[in-house]
Amino acid sequence: RLDTPPSIHRRHPLSRIAHLTALATTQYPEIRIGDGQPQPRMTYDHFLVQARLSNGMALSAEIAGGRPTGTPFRFEIVGEGGILTLEGGAPRGFQSGRLRLHVNGEPQMVDEGDLASLPDAALNVAATYADLRDDIAGGTSNAPGFTHAVRLAGLIEDAMTSSRNGLRKTLGDWPAA
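The structure corresponding to this sequence follows.
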């Protein structure tokens, strides 16, 4: 499954990242929260990554904040056999909304099981708890855990280091399948 953030974190749809170059910038230096006064942004709101995967494929990613609310999260894989697209999310991020799967532009039905009746904002948190429940009940370890979080933090730190010094970062102890 690639229909919830926990399932995306557990898998690498293409391959692991072998090395990357990144650029972090601030496009909107002030933000307005609710009806309040503009506040200075305290973090980057735009991130570009170019990477080579361990299987030799190229990856480009743009993570951008401050987009109009109608602009969904979009994750697209283009290959010889067609185009796989995940889109959706919410203004708070893709993790706080329901994702939709398309193959070559055609919507695909995703069985959300006992989570189907939940509101969009609750689905992904519930999916994480369901993964933990299934791990405990089945004696498995599929839900992202502390080790995965440490590796993901390392990937983010290496991407930020690349942005600061302009150099390519080579495979570290990044998230593994």
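The chain has one domain: 5-168.
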